[in-house]
Write a structure and sequence with these properties.
Protein name: Alpha-L-arabinofuranosidase B arabinose-binding domain-containing protein
CATH architecture of the largest domain: 5 Propeller
Organism: Actinoplanes campanulatus
GO molecular function: alpha-L-arabinofuranosidase activity
Number of strands: 32
CATH superfamily of the largest domain: Glycosyl hydrolase domain, family 43
CATH class of the largest domain: Mainly Beta
Helix content: under 10%
InterPro entries: AbfB_ABD, AbfB_ABD_sf, GH43_arabinanases, Glyco_hydro_beta-prop_sf, TAT_signal
Domain Alpha-L-arabinofuranosidase B arabinose-binding: 345-473
Distance between the termini: 38 Å
Shape: elongated
């Protein structure tokens, strides 16, 4: 969760959606026998201006990582505290849907850690997707609001429980100390009442629990979990709720809860080996990988040397790793990897000192834009069809130029078909100069993006002035 310098003191000292009953999921076919060949990591980077947002990185070997989106966020939270930390990626049992859940917290806004712990958000932030590249708008689910004295809801995770036919969602909440609570859900919208899941003896707190299901079991256990409770403690069980046995901790490797947090457990795709990543929060160095051939045996873990892994350009803090198929890897890179060199400014053809920019979510052309990033865009494959283009903000990733009633604004992608169509254009030769570019509407193909009185609008073009207003040049 990244408690920063207060973490040791916290563990020593303290040791949306309506929450309703959630029934079992209907019977589903087993997830398709997909062959996983790569990995997706979701993470945050720290307490910078955009560090508490959603970042993605990919890997083909599970040890060497490439940042997507030019090491910039891929999703921004527009709800709650407008910042997210500690993301968890969850695949549905049928493999047809993904959920991304995270802590609703933004320390960079000036909120202190004491307030965040004891008077913070009791909600989680949730996105969902069918393909990992197009995500719904974020929403809040108030999972911990019914807990007496709850001060926060941190570091959420989820695991599918086949015995019950639903997901067990669990997180840390601080009352007199930090405990892990859980609820059940089928849709990440309605949840059962929260229950205590893990409560360490005395004043000892616990956070950052992650559970991994082991196909065929390891050391006699179907599930292994890692938690931060003064150590990074490893436990095993044959059921998700109850029956857990302490197997040991990482102190024998010189790693204690005063040094590392935010454990990630995952299996390597091509071999019977598992990874355990721990966030070196106390030294600010990001994740460190350990590997093992038996996650239930502490003596089998070994720390990887610095020459054996690479984290990419951005610092990676408490996150999650999901195995993905080659098709998903290709789609993720098609969606975000090319952005490293795909930043453009859109210059007016007839007012050459002015550029398309957003200001308070309105869209216009201005000179002397400050900050410059308000006039920087990525032309990405069209949300309504890859043959078209959509125009995405660089400093508000996930926000696009979208027309509504022929007016333009910068709006977050809500995942709807209507939004995709409104935010997609056909790039054509410039109406006033074929060496430039014009943008024809995807769903109103007789209309073009143009400026009028410096504001952007969608118009039918019938005059020379209109053709000039609807013509632009792409610059770096």
């Amino acid at each position: 969760m990244s408690y920063q310098p207060r973490r040791r003191e916290l563990l020593a000292a303290i040791g949306g959606a309506v929450v309703t009953a959630a029934v079992g999921l209907p019977a589903r076919p087993a997830a398709a026998a997909d062959v996983y060949t790569a990995y997706l990591m979701a993470h945050f980077t720290g307490e910078s201006a955009t560090g508490e947002q959603m970042y993605f990185a990919t890997s083909t070997d599970g040890l060497h990582w490439t940042d997507l989106n030019g090491s910039q966020p891929v999703l921004l939270s527009s709800v709650g505290e407008k910042g997210v930390r500690d993301p968890a990626l969850v695949r549905s049992p049928a493999g047809d849907r993904f959920y991304l859940i995270a802590t609703d917290l933004r320390i960079a806004s000036g909120k202190g850690w004491d307030v965040a712990q004891h008077s913070g958000s009791t909600s989680l932030v949730v996105w969902e997707s069918t393909n990992l590249t197009t995500w719904s708008a974020p929403r809040l689910v108030n999972v911990a609001g019914a807990i007496s004295g709850a001060g926060c809801a941190w570091a959420p995770e989820a695991v599918y429980d086949p015995a019950a036919g639903n997901y067990v969602v669990y997180w840390a909440t601080i009352t007199d100390k930090a405990r892990i609570y859980y609820s059940r859900t089928t849709d990440f919208r309605t949840f059962t009442s929260p229950q205590v899941y893990i409560d360490r003896p005395g004043t000892q707190g616990i956070i950052d629990t992650q559970i991994l299901e082991i196909a065929g079991s390891a050391g006699g256990y179907r599930y292994v979990r890692a938690s931060g409770d003064g150590q990074i403690t490893i436990e095993g069980s044959n059921q998700i709720v109850g029956g857990w046995t302490r197997l040991g901790d990482l102190s024998g490797l010189g790693l204690t809860g005063a040094q590392v947090e935010g454990p990630i457990l995952h299996k390597f795709n091509d071999r019977n080996e598992w990874g355990l990543w721990v966030d070196q929060y106390s030294s600010g160095r990001g994740y460190l990988p350990l590997t093992t051939t038996n996650p239930a045996s502490l003596s089998a873990y070994r720390i990887r040397g610095t020459s054996e892994y690479a984290l990419g350009a951005s610092r990676k803090r408490h996150g999650t790793i999901l195995p993905i198929t080659q098709a998903q890897y290709t789609a993720l890179h098609g969606r975000w990897a090319t952005f490293t060199t795909g930043v453009n400014r859109i210059q007016s053809y007839n007012f050459t000192d002015r550029y398309v920019r957003h200001s308070n979510l309105d869209a216009r052309i201005d000179a002397g834009v400050s900050p410059l990033a308000d006039s920087q865009w990525r032309l990405v494959p069209g949300l309504a069809g890859a043959s078209g283009v959509s125009i995405e903000s660089t400093n508000f990733p996930g926000y696009y130029l979208r027309h509504s009633n022929f007016d333009f604004a910068l709006a977050p992608n809500d995942g709807s078909t209507a939004f995709a169509a409104d935010a997609t254009f056909t790039r054509v030769a410039g109406l006033a100069d074929s060496s430039a570019v014009s943008f024809r509407s995807y769903n109103n193909p007789t209309r073009y993006l143009r400026h009028y009185n410096y504001l952007l609008r969608l118009d039918e073009i019938t005059t020379a002035t209109g053709r000039a207003d609807a013509t632009f040049r792409l610059t770096s």
